[in-house]
Amino acid sequence: MPHRTRPMTALLVFTGLNVILVSTITPVYDFVCFLPYWERRREHRHQDRQAALTKDSR
Fold first, then answer.
1. What would the pLDDT profile of 1-58 be if each residue is shown by its tens digit?
2. How many independent structural domains does the chain possess?
3. Which alpha helices (DSSP H) does 1-58 contain, by range?
4. Through-space distance between the first and last CA atoms of the chain, rounded to whole angstroms
5. Domain annotation covers residue 11
6. Which terms are listed as keywords in the entry (predicted)?
């Protein structure tokens, strides 16, 4: 006997999973993107760029 497909159940599970993933992406994104490491690295790169610009303009 072949397995009976349930498209409505599959659609609801798929939609529910996507809603959960979308609702949890913002805190994960904020955690990863705003870690102190990245802030220090961004500041250091900014200082390096400023130093290079001032050295080139002399």
1. 466 778 899 999 999 999 999 999 988 888 888 888 888 888 999 999 999 988 887 6
2. 1
3. 7-33, 36-57
4. 83
5. no
6. Membrane, Transmembrane, Transmembrane helix
